[in-house]
Amino acid sequence: MEPNLPDVVLWSIPAFVLLTVIEMVSYRFHPDEDAAGYDTKDAATSLTMGLGSLGFDLLWKIPVLAVYMGVYELTPLRVPVLWWTVLLMLLAQDFFYYWSHRGHHVIRILWACHVVHHSSEKFNLTTALRQPWTSATVWPFYLPLIACGVHPAALAFCQSANLVYQFWVHTERVGKLPRPFEYVLNTPSHHRVHHASQGGYLDRNYGGILIIWDRMFGSFAAETERPVYGLTKNIATHNPLRVATHEYAAIARDVRAAGSWSERAGRVFRGPGWQPAPRPGAEAAVAVPVPAPVSVEAAAGPAPVRVEAPASVTAAAPAPEHTR
Q: What are the phi and psi torsion angles at 137 (to 5°)?
């Protein structure tokens, strides 16, 4: 029997609209010169990406639901939908969301989907709506929950609740919250770090509702300096089609230019900044100095700096054209 659970996203739409209007008005009457704020074209692009994702998600959900239902029918396990089991399912879904989110940052073909959400150089509530059109890469991460007897409808409810929670963390209007909240929950401060393009902030704070997963698995970074939003190589376009597909196009170019099958696999399945080692006998690369990104304050300790491919060129290893 399918669980009778509310459509969390549908019920939240009025709150989304109201909070976005309040945030826009707040910038009008209380501007912050250091904040990214709003840009009309950027906000329109985010809204377009969000509306487009609704339509594409309906298409992707058909085969995904078929797989989920097949696994659910095969497993002998069943998790009843009670108030306390829903809380446990929310906790478990948030755990698997963490690993899905992390995977979509460190595997390039998955990053090609998720990069859409990071492509804005602004950070406001409309940025939360900038969603990908190719979200079919997400479903495998939740198969363990279905195999453990969680009904697909219950999983969809948990995913929706997680998505709704994350709406409010896309803002610069909220500073740091009291320490207990900052320690346990994903907050605007933590999520600003996640959307930053500085080297010390890259690939940090993947949590959806809870930030404890990042603390447990070594991917947490506190906000110590004002973030610079966007990608390490921004795409400078408001064309929704290009926003949705630019990294897939870059992967295709890199795969065509690759000199071996192992390099082709690396361009697709390794990290967004991966480059193959020069072949033996290849001309040594000429290193071009790369300006150092802004570092995290000394109080936070030295942080590893990830830069995109150095501007070095060899015959065996052409520089990738991806964005990060």
A: -80, -5
- The pTM (predicted TM-score) of the whole model is 0.85
- 271 vs 267: CA distance, rounded Å: 8
**pLDDT tens by residue, 61-111:** 999 999 999 999 999 999 999 999 999 999 999 999 999 999 999 999 999
**Count of helices and strands (H, E) across the chain:** 11, 0
Give which of 219, 225, 167, 170 is closest to 195, Cα–Cα: 170
Helix axes 261-269, 240-257, angle to 10 degrees: 150
What's the length of the chain? 324
Give every CB contact of residue 96 below 8 A, 6+ residues apart in sequence.
Answer: 141, 142, 144, 145
Neighbours of 44 (CB within 10 A): 13
User: Which amino acid appears at position 99 of this protein?
Assistant: W
Q: Which two tokens stand for residue 20?
A: 């976005």
CA 116, CA 247: separation in Å to the nearest integer? Answer: 9
Is residue 258 helix, strand or coil?
A: coil
Q: At what angle do helices 8-29 and 152-167 cross, to 10 degrees?
A: 10
Q: How many CB atoms lie within 10 A of CB 205?
A: 26
3-state secondary structure of 185: strand
Structure confidence by residue, pLDDT tens digits, 221-238: 999 999 999 999 999 999
* Residue 182 Cα distances to 94, 129, 191, 210, 211, angstroms: 17, 23, 11, 10, 8
State the burial class of residue 291 (Cβ atoms within 10 Å of its Cβ: 0-12, 13-18, 19+). exposed
State both tokens at 273. Answer: 């900044």
Residue 89's nearest CA partner among 76, 80, 77, 101 is 80
- Alpha-carbon distances, residue 287 vs 240, 271, 309 (angstroms): 35, 21, 11
Q: How far from 103 is each of 99, 110, 113, 238, 261, CA to CA, in Å? A: 6, 7, 11, 26, 23
